[in-house]
Amino acid sequence: MRDFATPRDITRMEDCYFYHTMDLPGIGRIEGDWNLLPNITEYLGHVSFDGKRVLDVGCGAGALTFYMEQHGASVVSYDLDKTGDWDMVPYVKWEQRLNVEADRKTIIDRLNNAYWLSHKAFNSKAKVVYGSVYDMPDLIGAVDIAVYGSVLLHLRDPFLALQNGLRFVRDTVIVADLAGDSETSRPYLGFLPDAKTLEPKDTWWNLRPQWVVRAIGVLGFEDTEIIIHTQQYKGQTVYLYTVVGKRTHGQVIPANPR
Ligand SMILES: C[S@@+](CC[C@H](N)C(=O)[O-])C[C@H]1O[C@@H](n2cnc3c(N)ncnc32)[C@H](O)[C@@H]1O
Question: Is the pTM here over 0.90, yes or no?
Answer without folding.
Answer: yes
